[in-house]
Design goal:
The structure holds two protein chains of two kinds.
Chain A: H1 4-35, H2 42-60, H3 64-70, H4 72-90, H5 94-116, E1 131-134, E2 137-140, H6 141-163, H7 165-175, H8 177-182, H9 187-212, H10 219-233, H11 239-255, H12 269-281, H13 283-298
Antiparallel strand pairs in A: 1-2
Helix pairs in contact in A: 1-6, 1-7, 1-9, 1-10, 1-11, 2-3, 2-5, 2-9, 2-10, 3-9, 4-9, 6-7, 6-9, 7-9, 10-11, 10-12
Chain B: H1 2-7, H2 10-22, H3 24-27, H4 32-57, H5 66-81, H6 87-109, H7 114-134, H8 136-139, E1 145-146, H9 154-177, H10 179-189, H11 191-196, H12 201-227, E2 229-230, H13 232-235, H14 238-251, H15 258-275, H16 280-297, H17 301-308, H18 326-329
Antiparallel strand pairs in B: 1-2
């Protein structure tokens, strides 16, 4: 069981899934950075992304990969709309915004139950079962494509945040909202754009996840928890931190099957387990978390 | 004036209302449907009032209370069906078991600030459910546990539920007026300020959590005895946790009577909706929308609406602004 090829295959799978996890979590980290709220509608957006891609595939036979890209503007606008109509009003009250976004999740999830039913859905494509040879290992195409696209997406984000005015405004607001406003940044509009981008990224991740997993209207919840574990592991806001957190979680998940007596149904507990471990034995992460909250409270 | 003052004494009002409610099985002992519904209503009131001690008084919104309900339910189920205990004797053990779980959860998770606490508790509830399904030698796994059928009659359950709900309410009312409750209010409004004034916030949050878990655990024990059946998806279900949040938001989070009112609104609607399998999704859709509307327009819930109309005095904590609770105005803290 512990032979080298097996371990190598698991490592490759861990890296590939990690890329997708990073994209999935990055939207949550971005919204947290700018607004200091945890976006509980992240789960809803991932799920809706997956179902819209499914619907496009059923109606127009659109490939799920293309579908995930086509839906980006839609979810960007939807995210900005949600911010403008509702989130804006409670953005400075953590508990109210949490409950509001939780309500959004409940509504979206149950609307999806009514529209698409509770059966397990999956999208089959011509390449669902094909594999390619990478350094002598058979790797599924459905793992490679999301990984590559996630890297592209994260690259675009990195460029956007580093080299455009709007992106730099987002970073400035994340660092210090008051100082950013004093420097003439329209923090409100910046928050709206950041919420739109966050929503778009989680819908994209949801669309990509359809290549690998089957899904029901419930499926966002599990991945939301994973995203949260990832951003806590990674220090909540940092780009590199999210990538590392994603790799750690996907690594632990992949290698868990080597544990004797392990059951596949327990795999979704690992994210939560990591979260608790991070909280108990990594006080460094906690200290930075407390410092950020202190800064927010001082405003 | 005197009447108004009497109405403001929560202990007295609660005991009088409970006394009146206790007459129903004597007047109509054969109305089994109402007695059953009454029992379930009391179970929901108990859950909502307990949740409010942590979510309302201390401001730590938890989405994981189903973990305590499930623990209590299985402790009673197992002691009763496998070890032949009298169901009533299992109830304190169910409560104690839920307290242990609350402590195990609270010690790491309360190290997080309020928002992160909330997200982490979603994980707590889910983890508890998955563990319960996988511990199939203990819990019966996905097929559930069928329990003995020799249970007391409905009037007994009605009275037992009523007693539990009343005791829970009285304890919550006592906490709210006592220094402990004021400390919870303080840490809810500004944790750093509370700490700098000497409130041991970590200990108090855990204490509130443990007290709330006890009553939820006992309620769960009664509930499985009533149903004679326990299943992980049912007693550990996420919808239980959601329900506790919803009842409080609907009635008025952080107030004394809010969770009671919320339960009286939430439970009948839920019961009607769940009777028809096609309406299960509609049920949470409606409550999700209600949650959004309440947060946006009347964060005080029903009590907030009533006080806006001038029908009741404003109490509790508003979601939006960190207003001063009335007890503080009245000078209960002198030191």
């Amino acid at each position: 069981m512990f032979d080298l090829e097996n371990v190598a295959a698991l490592a490759v799978a861990a890296v590939l899934t990690g890329g997708l996890y990073a994209t999935m979590s990055y939207g949550l980290a971005l919204v947290y950075g700018v607004m200091k709220i945890i976006n509980l509608s992240h789960a809803a957006t991932m799920m809706l992304g997956a179902f819209v891609v499914l619907q496009l595939n059923r109606t127009f036979h659109l490939d799920p990969i293309l579908g995930s890209i086509v839906i980006l503007p839609l979810f960007f606008l939807a995210g900005m709309g949600l911010y403008r109509v509702a989130v804006r009003r409670v953005a400075d009250v953590p508990i109210a915004s949490l409950l509001l976004l939780f309500g959004t999740w409940l509504v979206a999830q149950n609307a999806a139950y009514i529209i698409w039913g509770s059966e397990d859905q999956s999208i089959l494509t011509s390449y669902t079962y094909s594999t390619v040879d990478v350094f002598g290992l058979n790797v599924a195409v459905t793992r490679i494509i999301p990984f590559v696209l996630s890297l592209v997406m994260l690259g675009v984000m990195r460029w956007f945040l580093g080299s455009t005015d709007l992106g730099r405004a987002i970073r400035a607001v994340s660092q210090d909202r008051t100082a950013a406003r004093l420097a003439g940044i329209w923090a409100e509009r910046t928050s709206m754009v950041a919420f739109g981008i966050g929503t778009m990224l989680s819908a994209f991740a949801g669309g990509m996840l359809t290549l690998i997993f089957s899904f029901t209207p419930d499926f966002g919840g599990v991945f939301q928890l994973k995203s949260f574990a990832i951003i806590v592991l990674g220090g909540l806001e940092s780009f590199t931190g999210v990538a590392i957190g994603a790799l750690v979680l996907s690594g632990v998940e992949q290698f868990s099957i080597l544990i004797p007596g392990w059951r596949a149904s327990l795999v979704n507990l690992l994210g939560f387990g990591l979260l608790v471990i991070a909280l108990v034995v990594l006080p460094g992460g906690l200290a930075s978390l407390a410092a950020r909250r202190g800064r927010k409270a001082a405003e | 004036m005197r009447a108004a003052r009497i109405l403001r004494d929560p202990y007295l009002v609660a005991i009088v209302l409970a006394g009146l409610a206790a007459l129903y099985p004597i007047v109509r002992p054969d109305d089994l449907t109402t007695l059953g519904l009454g029992f379930l209503t009391f179970i929901f009131i108990t859950q909502a009032v307990s949740w409010n001690i942590v979510g309302g008084f201390a401001g730590q919104i938890s989405f994981g209370f189903a973990a305590f309900f499930g623990t209590g339910a299985y402790i009673t189920a197992i002691l009763w069906s496998r070890y032949g205990w009298d169901p009533v004797l299992t109830l304190p053990v169910a409560g104690a078991g839920a307290m242990v779980v609350a402590l195990l959860v609270g010690l790491p998770v309360f190290r997080l600030q309020a928002q992160y606490f909330s997200i982490a508790t979603i994980g707590v509830g889910e983890a508890a459910r998955v563990i319960a399904i996988n511990l199939d030698s203990v819990t019966g796994g996905a097929s559930g546990l069928t329990l003995p059928f020799n249970i007391p009659d409905k009037s007994w359950f009605y009275w037992a539920g009523l007693t539990l709900a009343t005791v829970t309410f009285l304890v919550a009312a006592w906490i709210r007026r006592h220094r402990f409750g004021l400390a919870l209010f303080a840490l809810r409004m500004d944790q750093s300020a509370a700490e700098s004034l000497g409130v041991p916030t970590a200990i108090f949050k855990n204490l509130a959590h443990v007290v709330a878990a006890f009553f939820v655990g006992v309620a769960a024990g009664l509930y499985v005895v009533y149903l004679s059946y326990a299943h992980p998806d049912q007693v550990f279900g996420f919808d239980l946790s959601i329900g506790m949040v919803l009842m409080n938001v609907i009635g008025g989070i952080g107030t004394l009577w809010g969770p009671v009112l919320g339960a009286l609104v939430y439970f009948p609607i839920r019961q009607i909706m769940l009777a028809d399998p096609r309406l299960i999704a509609v049920n949470l859709l409606v409550f999700g929308m209600l949650l959004i509307l309440i947060v946006l327009f009347e964060p005080g819930g029903i009590l907030g609406l009533l006080s806006r109309l001038g029908l009741v005095a404003r109490t509790g904590v508003r979601l939006r602004s960190s207003g001063t609770p009335r007890d503080v105005d009245r000078g209960v803290i002198v030191e």
